[in-house]
Amino acid sequence: MATMKDAKMLGGIGAILSLLSFVPRVGTVLAIAGLVLVLVAVKYISDIVNEPKIFKDVLMAVIIEIVGVVLSFTVVFTAFLGPAFWASITRPRAVTLTVAGAGILGLVALWACLLVRAVLIKRAYERIAELTKVDLFKTTGLLYLIGAVLTIIIVGLPVTLVAKILEAVSFFSLPEAYPPVPPPPPPPPAARA
Fold first, then answer.
1. Rounded Cα distance, 50 and 31, in Å
2. pLDDT by residue, tens only, the chain of 193 residues
3. How far apart are CA 99 and CA 116, in angstroms?
4. pTM of the entire predicted model
5. What are the boundaries of each domain within the chain?
């Protein structure tokens, strides 16, 4: 059976691995491994606190992010292979408009998916914060949402990076057990003789 200590370690390591996505050649593999570890950690937390909706929200967020990436890639790729592109080879201005339009449409689709993803992550992390008393999860969720909103003007990328860093700190801040064990009561005052 999974413990909060397992979720703490897997989530923290997963969040750190997802930060290493920029490393040449292995970045994508590290990011995927990190994502899987975070998903497993959230599943553990969801099971421990008996709240399946937490895991469902995070899993749905990941699925929506993947759909957004595939959708935006498909829109742009189709613009290059579609009949409008091939028919416009003789007219360079039309090619530019076709590719630019597809690029904008692809980015808008990706942005919309990122917004939905961020709302789901925020909701799940707020619930984790309520149950585990690690309020840093609330801040992490809020920063993911702000980062997603601001991604359209590129300012959101550094905000999302900060959210990923706080995500690692949040997981490492989880208590070792759930519910947290209260400290023992202070000893009674010594009787005077």
1. 28
2. 788 999 999 999 999 999 988 888 898 899 999 999 999 999 999 999 999 999 999 999 999 999 988 988 887 777 666 655 555 555 655 556 666 777 788 888 889 999 999 999 999 999 999 999 999 999 999 999 999 999 888 888 899 999 999 999 999 999 988 776 666 788 888 766 5
3. 26
4. 0.82
5. 4-172
